[in-house]
Amino acid sequence: MTHPPVLITGARLPDGQPRDLLLEGGRFADPASAPADVRRVDADGLLALPGLVDLHTHLREPGREDAETVRTGTLAAARGGYTAVLAMANTSPVTDTAEAAEHVAALGRRDGCAQVAPVGAVTKGLAGEELAELGLMARSAAGVRVFSDDGHCVHDSRLMRRALEYVRAFDGVIAQHAQDPRLAGPDACCHEGEISGRLGLGGWPAVAESTIVARDVQLARLTGSRLHVCHVSTAETVEVLRWAKGLGIAVTAEVTPHHLLLTTDAVTGYDPTFKVNPPLRPDEHVTALRQALADGTIDAVGTDHAPHARHDKEHAFADAAFGMVGLETALGVVAATMVETGLMAWEDVAVRMSTSPARIAGLTDQGRPLAVGEPANLVLVDPSRRTRVDAADTLSLSRNNPYHGLELPDPVVATFWQGRPTFTR
Ligand SMILES: NC(=O)N[C@@H](CC(=O)O)C(=O)O
Ligand SMILES: [Zn+2]
Ligand SMILES: [Zn+2]
């Protein structure tokens, strides 16, 4: 399927340089060669960033199509400026075989408004007992490179070591949901501290994350393999990452938009919208996470878009499902917390939300420069555009949106994937 050429005029690249962009046959072409009757998009005053890449999306298909599908999840992704998402393995059935991974990849090709790269489970059924078919998933047509038991921690040290050893052969990466189940047990649902005590909610101590990360970076050093840390939420984890990177250990990490903006204070009204794993943390952690994203200790932003049906969220706080949606608001939250605060320039946003996540996931057609010959994946951004967030105004099937009612930057004006518009305002 070919899309007619599009000429985008007046945009600026993340470094501020003006650049006209011709999208033709799925790639960028020389604007001077544009046909006279080409479709034009006036991007005067807008920034053009490479299409965003989300390392951490829960698409819920197969199994929970009432909460999200590949179609609706990638529509929401396109609206958020994304041209690729990594689809987490905690579906039903779990993505723990080559067939299951190929099924998700095929759904992506059929229904996707963005590239869908399946994440493979590390252990069969996410049970933490036996390694899944990592090699078969990697060598399958789905070409899986990222493996994660997300939702669960691979807490058995020996199994984690084996998994790291295994993926080295095909430059795979183990993405760990770092949570020691002995320190943050089944009832842990709120950062352990004054607020959890006052509200009577099970405490999730910060060290339950950082102790696992400290172990894992040493296993990554031992095996010479790549480790990725999902949704970093504590200052202690940032310290461990700094130390490990200083030693040259191959570790990368992501932070979610919600951990950059929201704090434990949000849960004091017992609203389960704010129940998420790992939990929202106090201010001093949020400050450390912002600093770490700015200085590169944290490599990427990952949304952990976790849609849930109303009947899974509308319970007492302790009983509700963990997770919040995030694809449509991610760039706005990063603009508010990192750009408008002066911590990062838009050029850095492009690195943390496109270039680095594409490199970590091994997606060779994503996170590329906006240059002639490269795949035409981009997002047009209006840095001054703002809106009041409305949970009901969404392309996702779920409405567990923690920003409802907040005024936030809403910078995405249009998204193009493989040269065609997947979202336009
Ligand atoms: N983040 C969450 O709170 N929930 C995720 C699982 C996870 O990322 O651990 C989910 O699948 O709902
Ligand atoms: Zn997780
Ligand atoms: Zn997740």
Q: Which key terms come to mind for this protein?
A:
425 residues, TIM Barrel, four-stranded mixed sheet, binds N-carbamoyl-L-aspartate, binds zinc ion
Verbal overview:
The protein has 425 residues and is an alpha/beta fold. The protein has a single domain (50-368), classed as Metal-dependent hydrolases (TIM Barrel, Alpha-Beta Barrel). The chain is 29% helix and 19% strand. The protein has twelve helices and 20 strands. The strands form six sheets. Strands 9-10-13-14-15 form a five-stranded parallel β-sheet. It has a four-stranded mixed β-sheet with strand order 3-2-1-4, with no helix packed on it. α1 links the parallel β6 (52-57) and β7 (82-87). α4 packs across α6 (207-223) and α6 packs parallel to α7.
Number of domains: 1
Question: How far apart are the termini?
Answer: 23 Å
Low-confidence stretches: none
The top level CATH class name = Alpha Beta
CATH architecture call: Alpha-Beta Barrel
- Proportion in β-strands: 15-25%
Look at the helices and sheets and give the structural class: alpha/beta
Overall residue-averaged pLDDT value: 98
If you consult CATH, what is the topology? TIM Barrel
Rg computed from alpha carbons, rounded to a whole number of angstroms: 20 Å
> Bound small molecules, which ones?
N-carbamoyl-L-aspartate, zinc ion
Binding site for Zn(2+) 2: 150, 177, 231
Active site: 304
GO biological process, one term: 'de novo' UMP biosynthetic process
Keywords: Hydrolase, Metal-binding, Pyrimidine biosynthesis, Zinc
